[in-house]
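Fill-in record for Putative D-ala D-ala ligase.
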Amino acid sequence: GMQRLLDAAGMHYAGCDAVSSALTMDKTLTKETAAAKGIKVIPGVTFPAAKKPRPEQVIEQFGERVVVKPNAEGSSVGLNLVGSREELTRVLDVIQNGRWIIERRIFGRELAVGVLNGRAMGVVEIRPKSGVYDYASKYTKGMTNYLAPAPLDAALTQKIQAAAQTAFAACGCRDYARVDFILGDDHELYLLEINTHPGMKETSQLPMSARCEGIDFTALVKAMVTLAVQRFHAARASRNP
């Protein structure tokens, strides 16, 4: 990716480096890394297209209501919400290449937390009007409501922020990222993913998270860039003591 090229050229840039960006793009590796630090993740299985599980195996392990998605895609591309054996069979039949994940479907409240320089900011709740936060809900104006800050009590907010910081650090992230969770109807907090290239429109979730902390869009962008500038000056100083 671009980060690898910039790293190889010795260029300084804002955001996560090539290693952490590659790690967080791999959903399975992200889950394993976070779980090793005590963060709860959704039960699931990862498989290559050539070794697809049989529908009955999936149902026996996770039930009929599952999520089938690519292991390394963003923006909910390829996301399939399955509710029956017939649907699962159809979805598995069309998988021809790549690595995929099947997870038990968790119902609950979707939450996003911006992290800036290792510190979690406000918690944003995502409420898609369709009930599913898919590609259309993410990128079609008016299809999703965002609550910033999320209506949560202080103790739960702090728990979510602490989990976001732990996941961010565990995956070697730097500067900024968005950490996504689902607060299940079972009252458990599950990590969904870490996005190291989150949307940066004023209406995107990272800026929303920052505004919860009194950081406006201009101040957020300045803080993000300043971290890269500081690395540049530190590297130059080390070369020219």
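KEY FINDING: The chain has two domains: 2-41+107-237, 44-104.
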